[in-house]
Amino acid sequence: MKILLTGGAGYIGSHVLNLLGQDGHDIVVVDNLSTGRKEALLYGRHEEFNLEETERLEELIKKEKFQACLHFAGSIIVPESVEKPIKYYQNNTQNSLELIRLCEKHGVHNFIFSSTAALYGDSATNGICTEESPLIPINPYGRSKLMTEMMLEDTSKVTNLNYVALRYFNVAGANVDLKVGQCSPNATHLIKIASECATGKRPGMEIFGEDYDTKDGTCVRDYIHVDDLAQAHVDALKFLVTKKESAVLNCGYGHGYSVKEVVETVKRVTGKDFEVKITGRRAGDAGTLISKAGKIREVIGWTPKYDDLDLIVRTAFEWEAKLS
Ligand code: UDP
Known about the structure:
Blueprint: E1 2-6, H1 11-22, E2 26-30, E3 45-47, H2 54-64, E4 68-71, H3 78-83, H4 85-105, E5 110-116, E6 128-129, H5 140-158, E7 162-168, E8 170-172, H6 190-198, E9 204-208, E10 220-221, E11 223-225, H7 226-243, E12 247-251, E13 257-258, H8 259-270, E14 275-279, E15 288-291, H9 294-300, H10 309-323
Parallel strand pairs: 1-2, 1-4, 2-3, 4-5, 5-7, 6-15, 7-12, 8-11, 9-14, 10-15
Antiparallel strand pairs: 10-13
Helix pairs in contact: 1-7, 2-4, 4-5, 6-8, 6-10, 8-10
C-alpha cells in the first residue's frame, strides 16, 4: 500500500515503520525531526517539514494519492502539556485537524490515529478503562487528543473516511532485535528514566507521589511493549482495508504495575542499583490506568507476544546501553 506516516522518526512511529517496511509497503514519512532521529528511518522516503506547513502537506497528499495515513506526529509529555498547553493544542489538535481535512479532501480513506489512555483521566472505576468509560482527561495532553478523536468520529459519519483510534496505555521497551528504540532527548517516561539510571547516565531518579489510592501508594500503569503496539497498527490497517469501518480501541495488556514495582524490576533485571527518592505528585498524573483489553483482540485480532515486564525492561535497558 501507499502510506503516509507522520512522525515516523519518533519512538512509536519508527517501530511501526520498521514493520510496515518489512512488509514491503511504499511509505512516505513526514517528520520535522524536532524529537525524532533520522537514523530511526529504516524504510520509506523522508519529507522533512512541520505539519503546520499546510500547503506543502497538501501538495504531497495530492500528488502521492495515499491509501492510508498513520498519524504519530505530536507531543506526548503530560507535565509539559500542563506547562505549555498551546503547544499541545497546536501540535496535537490543530495539526491533526488540517491533516484529517486534507486526507478527506484528497481521498485518503483509511486513517490510524495515535490516541491515549490519558483520555480517561481518573474516570474509570478502579482505573480499569473500557472504551466506554467516560472521557474526562485531566491534562492538556489528553484533552488535545480527545478533540482529535471527536473530529475523526464526526468526520467518519458523513464522509468515506474510516479510522482506527488506538488508545495507547504506557508504551515502553525497544524493538526485540534492537533495530530501533526510544531516543527521545530529555525523556520523562518511567522505564526510559530508570534505564538511564541503570546504564549510569543518570545518578538517580524520583518517584512522583506515594499517596495514591493504589496497592503501594504509587501510580499504576499498564506497560505495553512497543513491538506489540506496532503490530496493533499493522492489524488495524488490515481491519480498515478489509472491513471498511471505524473503531476505537484500547491498546494495553489488561494489567498494571506500580511505579515502585517497575523500579524494582529495572534494578533486578539489570542487576544495577541506583538512588530513588520519593517526592511529591507530578501535575496531571492519574492514579491508575489499566486497559480493559478484550475489544482490540476481538475487533482486529491483535495477539500480543511480549506481555512480560522483565522483557520490556530488558529491551529498554539493552537499547539504552547501545545508545551510549
Ligand atoms: N514517574 C515517576 N518518576 C519518573 C517518571 C515517571 O515516578 O521519573 C511516574 C509518573 O508519575 C507516572 C508513571 O511513572 O505515575 C508513568 O509515567 P510516564 O511519564 O512514564 O507515563 P504517563 O503515564 O505519564 O504517560
